[in-house]
């Protein structure tokens, strides 16, 4: 039988300002099913999660902390300039 366990890496940008914020993020990730490991970097405002998880589920779980959370790839982009 094939093992269909596929480990994914999800990287989020999370607005954390103190160790309490970091603790809240670690707490919700520690309870989340499928999470194998995670790294919380307060300086970079970056949370990296590895495991058998979906990006949306990780985003929703971390959002429960009340912190501003988005996918790392979602860089703020300048509005497109229309040319006439």
Automatic annotation (TrEMBL):
It comes from the Eukaryota. GO terms for molecular function: metal ion binding. InterPro entries: HMA_dom, HMA_dom_sf. Pfam families: HMA (PF00403). Residues 7-70 form the HMA domain. Keywords: Metal-binding. SUPFAM superfamilies: HMA, heavy metal-associated domain. This is HMA domain-containing protein. The lineage of its organism: Eukaryota, Viridiplantae, Streptophyta, Embryophyta, Tracheophyta.
């Amino acid at each position: 039988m094939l093992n269909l366990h596929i480990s994914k890496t999800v990287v989020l940008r999370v607005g954390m300002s103190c160790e309490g914020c970091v603790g809240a993020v670690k707490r919700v990730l520690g309870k989340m099913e499928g999470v194998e490991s995670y790294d919380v970097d307060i300086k970079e405002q970056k949370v990296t999660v590895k495991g058998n998880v979906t990006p949306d589920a990780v985003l929703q779980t971390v959002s429960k902390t009340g912190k501003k959370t988005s996918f790392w790839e979602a860089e703020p982009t300048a509005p497109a300039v229309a040319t006439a």
